[in-house]
Amino acid sequence: MPYPNFSSAVTPSLTYKNFKGSVEFDVERRIYRGKIRFIDDLITYEANSRSLLKKEFEAAINDYLDTCGKLGRQPQRARYGLSFRNAR
Fold first, then answer.
1. Are 11 and 22 in contact (CB under 8 A)?
2. Could you give the residue ranges of the DSSP H alpha helices within 23-77?
3. Residues 18, 76: contact at Cβ < 8 Å?
């Protein structure tokens, strides 16, 4: 299996239900892995292929949302983008 080429300037990412996730390849373990970005809770996922990684990413988000519902707490929402202030 050839190693993926992530040499472009844009970091690969996944998006689902307004959550963004990273895509990494662990050379030693030969697996794809990632974590949900822009929230404080730690949610990770991994798979043997990029196509399966997307499914695991979506399953991790669905599990996170279900778990938050069972615990009676609001899920964190992604905080990303630029914010500008007028410093007058």
1. yes
2. 50-71
3. no
Rounded Cα distance between 5 and 8, Å, is 8
What residues have CB less than 8 Å from 49, skipping those under 6 apart?
A: 32
- For residue range 31-64, list pLDDT tens digits in order: 999 999 999 999 999 999 988 999 999 999 999 9
CA-to-CA separations, 37 to 1, 19, 31, 42, in angstroms, rounded: 28, 7, 19, 9
What does the alpha-carbon distance between residue 63 and residue 70 come to, in Å, rounded to a whole number?
10
pTM, full prediction: 0.75
The SS3 of residue 36 is strand
